[in-house]
Amino acid sequence: MCLFCKIINKEIPSNVILEDEDFLAFHDVNPKAPVHILAIPKIHVDSFNEVSGELMGKMSSFIKKVAQEVKIDKSGYRVITNIGENGGQEVQHLHFHILGGAKLSWGHFSDADPKGHF
Length: 118
Ligand code: AMP
What we know:
Layout: H1 3-8, E1 16-19, E2 23-27, E3 35-41, H2 53-69, E4 77-80, H3 84-87, E5 96-100
Antiparallel strand pairs: 1-2, 2-3, 3-5, 4-5
The chain binds adenosine monophosphate (AMP).
Adenosine monophosphate binds next to loops.
Protein backbone atom coordinates (compact mmCIF):
# COMPACT_ATOMS: atom_id res chain seq x y z
CA MET A 1 0.00 0.00 0.00
CA CYS A 2 1.37 3.46 -0.86
CA LEU A 3 2.24 6.12 1.72
CA PHE A 4 -0.81 8.28 1.04
CA CYS A 5 -3.19 5.26 1.08
CA LYS A 6 -1.78 4.55 4.56
CA ILE A 7 -2.52 8.17 5.56
CA ILE A 8 -6.10 7.78 4.25
CA ASN A 9 -6.47 4.56 6.28
CA LYS A 10 -5.04 6.38 9.36
CA GLU A 11 -2.20 3.86 9.57
CA ILE A 12 0.15 6.87 9.35
CA PRO A 13 -0.88 10.02 11.24
CA SER A 14 -1.43 13.31 9.45
CA ASN A 15 -2.55 16.79 10.36
CA VAL A 16 -5.95 16.86 8.65
CA ILE A 17 -7.46 20.13 7.40
CA LEU A 18 -10.53 18.86 5.58
CA GLU A 19 -12.00 15.49 4.72
CA ASP A 20 -15.07 14.26 2.87
CA GLU A 21 -16.22 11.00 1.32
CA ASP A 22 -13.85 11.27 -1.64
CA PHE A 23 -10.91 13.47 -0.60
CA LEU A 24 -8.49 14.29 2.19
CA ALA A 25 -6.40 17.43 2.80
CA PHE A 26 -3.54 17.53 5.29
CA HIS A 27 -0.45 19.62 6.07
CA ASP A 28 2.69 18.77 4.11
CA VAL A 29 5.30 17.45 6.54
CA ASN A 30 8.02 19.53 4.85
CA PRO A 31 6.31 22.88 4.11
CA LYS A 32 7.67 25.09 1.34
CA ALA A 33 5.39 28.06 2.17
CA PRO A 34 3.56 29.31 5.30
CA VAL A 35 0.56 27.31 4.08
CA HIS A 36 1.43 24.03 2.36
CA ILE A 37 -1.36 21.51 2.17
CA LEU A 38 -1.70 18.31 0.17
CA ALA A 39 -5.09 17.38 -1.27
CA ILE A 40 -5.54 13.77 -2.36
CA PRO A 41 -8.32 11.51 -3.64
CA LYS A 42 -9.21 8.60 -1.36
CA ILE A 43 -9.13 6.17 -4.25
CA HIS A 44 -5.63 5.35 -5.42
CA VAL A 45 -4.71 7.14 -8.65
CA ASP A 46 -1.02 7.12 -9.58
CA SER A 47 -0.82 10.67 -10.96
CA PHE A 48 -2.57 13.38 -12.96
CA ASN A 49 -1.88 11.29 -16.08
CA GLU A 50 -4.39 8.68 -14.90
CA VAL A 51 -7.13 10.84 -13.32
CA SER A 52 -10.59 10.94 -14.92
CA GLY A 53 -12.31 14.17 -15.84
CA GLU A 54 -15.11 13.34 -13.42
CA LEU A 55 -12.78 12.90 -10.44
CA MET A 56 -10.80 16.00 -11.45
CA GLY A 57 -13.99 18.07 -11.44
CA LYS A 58 -14.77 17.01 -7.87
CA MET A 59 -11.14 17.45 -6.89
CA SER A 60 -11.20 21.07 -8.14
CA SER A 61 -14.21 21.85 -5.93
CA PHE A 62 -12.49 20.21 -2.95
CA ILE A 63 -9.29 22.21 -3.48
CA LYS A 64 -11.30 25.45 -3.51
CA LYS A 65 -12.98 24.43 -0.25
CA VAL A 66 -9.59 23.78 1.33
CA ALA A 67 -8.39 27.25 0.28
CA GLN A 68 -11.51 28.77 1.86
CA GLU A 69 -11.08 26.69 5.01
CA VAL A 70 -7.55 28.03 5.63
CA LYS A 71 -8.53 31.53 4.42
CA ILE A 72 -6.13 31.89 1.51
CA ASP A 73 -8.82 31.99 -1.18
CA LYS A 74 -8.92 35.81 -1.27
CA SER A 75 -5.18 36.49 -0.81
CA GLY A 76 -4.25 33.95 -3.47
CA TYR A 77 -2.47 30.65 -3.65
CA ARG A 78 -0.83 28.17 -6.00
CA VAL A 79 -1.89 24.64 -6.92
CA ILE A 80 0.76 22.25 -8.20
CA THR A 81 0.77 18.60 -9.10
CA ASN A 82 4.07 16.93 -9.93
CA ILE A 83 3.91 14.16 -12.53
CA GLY A 84 6.53 11.48 -13.04
CA GLU A 85 10.28 11.66 -12.86
CA ASN A 86 10.88 14.97 -14.64
CA GLY A 87 7.97 16.51 -12.75
CA GLY A 88 9.64 15.62 -9.45
CA GLN A 89 6.86 13.32 -8.20
CA GLU A 90 8.10 11.44 -5.14
CA VAL A 91 4.85 9.88 -3.92
CA GLN A 92 3.03 7.83 -6.55
CA HIS A 93 -0.48 8.79 -5.42
CA LEU A 94 -2.12 11.80 -7.09
CA HIS A 95 -1.77 14.87 -4.89
CA PHE A 96 -2.15 18.59 -5.30
CA HIS A 97 0.12 20.94 -3.39
CA ILE A 98 -1.85 24.00 -2.19
CA LEU A 99 0.64 26.74 -1.33
CA GLY A 100 -0.02 30.20 0.06
CA GLY A 101 0.06 32.43 3.11
CA ALA A 102 2.69 34.72 1.57
CA LYS A 103 3.59 36.14 -1.82
CA LEU A 104 5.13 33.20 -3.64
CA SER A 105 8.16 33.60 -5.87
CA TRP A 106 8.18 32.21 -9.39
CA GLY A 107 11.14 29.96 -9.05
CA HIS A 108 14.05 28.37 -10.75
CA PHE A 109 12.75 25.18 -12.35
CA SER A 110 15.72 23.56 -14.04
CA ASP A 111 19.31 24.02 -15.09
CA ALA A 112 18.38 23.15 -18.68
CA ASP A 113 17.96 25.86 -21.30
CA PRO A 114 14.28 26.87 -21.04
CA LYS A 115 14.24 27.46 -24.81
CA GLY A 116 15.88 24.14 -25.61
CA HIS A 117 12.94 21.71 -26.04
CA PHE A 118 10.98 22.76 -29.14
P1 AMP B 1 5.85 15.19 -4.57
O1 AMP B 1 7.32 15.47 -4.64
O2 AMP B 1 5.03 16.09 -5.47
O3 AMP B 1 5.54 13.72 -4.79
O4 AMP B 1 5.40 15.59 -3.12
C1 AMP B 1 5.33 14.70 -2.06
C2 AMP B 1 5.13 15.54 -0.83
O5 AMP B 1 4.70 14.71 0.22
C3 AMP B 1 6.37 16.29 -0.35
O6 AMP B 1 6.12 17.69 -0.34
C4 AMP B 1 6.59 15.74 1.06
O7 AMP B 1 7.05 16.71 1.96
C5 AMP B 1 5.20 15.23 1.42
N1 AMP B 1 5.14 14.16 2.41
C6 AMP B 1 5.86 13.01 2.41
N2 AMP B 1 5.51 12.24 3.46
C7 AMP B 1 4.54 12.92 4.13
C8 AMP B 1 3.77 12.65 5.30
N3 AMP B 1 3.91 11.51 6.00
N4 AMP B 1 2.88 13.58 5.71
C9 AMP B 1 2.74 14.73 5.03
N5 AMP B 1 3.41 15.04 3.91
C10 AMP B 1 4.31 14.14 3.45
